[in-house]
Amino acid sequence: MKKLALHWQIILGMVIGILFGLLMTTFEGGKEIVQDWIKPFGKIFIKCLKMIAIPLILAALIKGVSDLKDISKLSKMGGRTIVIYIATTVIAVTIGLMLVNVVNPGKAISQETRTEMIENYSGDTTKYQETAKSQKDAGPLQALEDLVPDNIFMAATSNRNMLQIIFFAIFFGIGLILIPEEKGKTVKSFFDGFNEVILKMVDLIMLAAPYGVFALLAAIIVESPSLDLFQALGMYALTVVAGLVFMISVYIAIVFIVTKKTPKFFLNGISPAQLLAFSTSSSAATLPVTMERVTEHLGVEEEVSSFVLPIGATINMDGTSLYQAVAAVFIAQAFGMELDFATQLGIIATATLASIGSAAVPGAGMVMLVGVLGYAGIPEAGLALIFAVDRPLDMCRTVVNVTGDATVSMVVAKSVGKLNDPKPKNWDDNYEAVK
User: Fold this and answer.
1) Cα radius of gyration rounded to whole Å, the chain
2) Could you say which of 47, 223, 295, 410 is the most buried, measured as most Cβ atoms within 10 Å of its Cβ?
3) Does some domain include residue 434?
4) Cα–Cα distance for residue pair 181/177, rounded to 1 Å
5) Which of 85, 115, 375 is nearest to 251 (CA)?
6) Structural domain total, the chain
7) How far apart are CA 160 and CA 77, in angstroms?
8) Interhelix angle for 71-103 vs 302-315, to 10°?
9) Among 128-142, 208-222, 228-242, 270-284, which is the least confidently predicted range?
10) Alpha helices by DSSP H, 104-179
11) What crossing angle do the helices spanning 71-103 and 162-178 adopt, rounded to 10°?
């Protein structure tokens, strides 16, 4: 019998995980069984991906920059990448604001429901407020200062310091370009080989993806808050999801217009990364898979993907920015506040800037949202209103973040003549090799 394609294996793992989680909620002690004996395997899977995220970024970016062999190529590709990322983020925030103003989901929240949720989630809200307060107290150039690591080895010990790793990798790659080719040959060969080893590790880890996804989804189901809270926030959640779906449609249109690639081609190529993003809620954890899919299945040359995608996983948070716009206006509506046009324009700018450099890990959007709420004068206690449904929405917006990264990589590749017909790997070969 023909082996199922990877994305179908992941979908099957998701479905079985959801059904298994629902089944275990009907048994006394079922939640504890999933938490103690199933969830750890999902955590191990995520840890494996995060384990190689920083080595992958270092190897891929240094290789990608040094392969350019010309500083002018770096500035050309880098400028286009940043401009397109910012443009798609502005589009995403604008879509979010338009939808939330049409649907007005916050006006459906009752005082009783609001009070209950604030009481239930006040502790989590306080945690995010404290984290955001430390960011708010920083100076206007703090983000620029934080870009440069004072110790690259300390920066490499945390997946939250992705921008510092990217800065070092690009700086190292530039240095490799500027020295004579003969002197840098050994170093370049090392990173070329190092990059190949890391990519092979990705292949091996992906063999466990269906099982990891099963464990993650089963744990999420048994740990979900009460259904009453989901029903109360249903309109808000649907508004966010509608905006995210619309944003993916925008990506598909951009890919078709710029590269002439069909929606089916694009979605088939990126779907395993989208499904993994949905399961992990982490662009950083999904980055290794995103790079493999974009390079091997969408035809983007590694020279471009190894440069564009690590940067995108850090500064391109279109799904998160769209969610912030909807959440900010929703909370304002729930508290009976009316936001004027100028304030909403400010939300666009604030959400766009807040997305740059945010941690590509689950829950980072909550911290960023406090900054947006503070700008608009919206009570930060409103975070408790949306905390109940944040986890499933975090999963959905991460799909958009990853899809946006893939889209921009294809557009940049097309603009510099580095987009070719894909030559996909055979996952069956990898499976047989491991056996």
Assistant:
1) 22
2) 410
3) no
4) 8
5) 85
6) 1
7) 25
8) 40
9) 128-142
10) 111-136, 142-146, 152-155, 162-178
11) 160
User: Residue 78 in contact with residue 408, Cβ under 8 Å?
Assistant: no
Determine the Cα angle at 363 with ends 361 and 368, to 5°.
Answer: 100
379 is written with which tokens?
């009570």
Residue 432 lies in a domain: no
Domain holding 74, by residue range, is 6-421
What sign has the CA pseudo-torsion 287, 288, 294, 300?
positive
The tokens describing 404, both together, are: 């946006």
Asked if 320 and 358 touch (Cβ cutoff 8 Å), the reply is yes
Place of tokens 């070719």: 420
The dihedral of CA 326, 396, 413, 79: what is its sign? positive
Query: Does residue 388 sit within a domain?
Result: yes
Q: 270: closest CA among 239, 248, 245?
A: 248
Which pLDDT band holds residue 418 (cuts at 50, 70, 90)? confident
Find out whether 298 and 425 touch, Cβ atoms under 8 Å. Answer: no
In the three-class reduction of DSSP (H, G, I as helix; E, B as strand; rest coil), residue 26 is classed as coil
Biggest distance spanned by C-alpha atoms of the chain:
72
Q: How far apart are CA 137 and CA 54, in angstroms?
A: 29
Q: Which of 320, 339, 368 is nearest to 104 (CA)?
A: 339
Q: Quick one: tokens of 221?
A: 């189901």
Tokens of 133: 């307060």
> Do residues 106 and 329 make contact, with C-beta atoms less than 8 angstroms apart?
yes
Q: Which of 324, 327, 311, 328 is nearest to 404 (CA)?
A: 311
**pTM metric for this prediction:** 0.68
In eight-state DSSP terms, residue 361 is S
Distance CA 336, CA 264 (A): 44
Q: What letter would DSSP give residue 300? A: B
Considering the domain boundaries, does residue 93 fall inside one? yes
What is the CB-side half-sphere exposure of residue 4 using CA atoms within 13 A?
11
CATH code for the domain in which residue 117 is found: 1.10.3860.10
What amino acid is encoded at 372 in this protein?
V
pLDDT in tens, 304-348: 888 888 878 767 788 888 988 888 888 887 776 777 777 777 777
Q: How far apart are CA 308 and CA 82, in angstroms?
A: 9
Q: Is 50 exceeded by the pLDDT of residue 357?
A: no
